[in-house]
Amino acid sequence: MRGHQFSVVRLFDRDPLPGPEDFDLLAVMGGPMSVHDESEHSWLIEEKSLIASCLQQGVFVLGICLGSQLLAECLGSPVRHNAHREIGWFPVNITADEGSLLHGFPEELMVFHWHGETYDLPPSTAHRAGSEGCLVQAFEHASALGLQFHLEVKQDGVEQLLQHCGSEIGPGAFQQDPSAIRAGEELHREVARRHLFKLLDAIGARLTA
């Protein structure tokens, strides 16, 4: 894709972690666990150590959902329960200046959410997006970007979430039922995907500048 090489590490399957010298970009994705579940998922300790090493060495880190929470913690912002659980398609409000990786994104973008934890804006970062249900939806660091929401969502991913995590859906103001989530996926996925590639191209351009 775009001439880049990719490798996938499944920590839950005990795949060995690479070192910061082995890649140019670390993408840390989501999961149903919390950053605090180290006793149940000991690989979280290794993952946090890798993220911290990348930050120290200036290797770019992209954190998505749980990945952004791990990134925030490594940057010094504790993760806690949010006042609202966000599950489904809700808009985020984006503020990005010309130097931001999110420059050129619309001021409001409909995106997919599945999280119940949050954090304050980490030190030495810029606030890039928020929503009615969650103040910090995106933050940017000199060598990192954290997104609480999902631009990468696809139909099979939505179905797997509904199958394995559907019991998490409740009656909250920022939670949609499965039918609304499926309808939102059909309606918004292509716009989200387009902005995902716009973001990845921006990251790639920064890394090769």
**For the report, how would you describe the main beta sheet?**
7 strands, mixed
- Domain module tally: 1
Shape: globular
Average pLDDT: 95
Please identify the structural class as seen in this structure. alpha/beta
- H/E topology pattern: EHEHEEEEEHH
Distance between the termini: 19 Å
Radius of gyration: 16 Å
From the structure above, extract its key features.
209 residues, alpha/beta, Rossmann fold, seven-stranded mixed β-sheet, 7 strands, 24% strand
Characterization of the model:
The longest helix is centred in the last third of the chain and has 31 residues, at 178-208. By secondary structure, the protein is α/β, with parallel strands linked by helices. Helix 1 crosses helix 2 (66-74) and helix 3 crosses helix 4. The chain has one domain (11-208): Rossmann fold, CATH 3.40.50. It contains four helices and seven strands. The mean pLDDT is 95.
Write the layout of secondary structure elements.
Elements: E1 25-28, H1 43-57, E2 60-64, H2 66-74, E3 79-94, E4 108-119, E5 126-130, E6 138-141, E7 144-147, H3 155-165, H4 178-208
Parallel strand pairs: 1-2, 2-7
Antiparallel strand pairs: 3-4, 3-5, 5-6, 6-7
Helix pairs in contact: 1-2, 3-4
Question: Could you write a compact summary of the structure shown?
Answer:
The protein is α/β, with parallel strands linked by helices and 209 residues long.
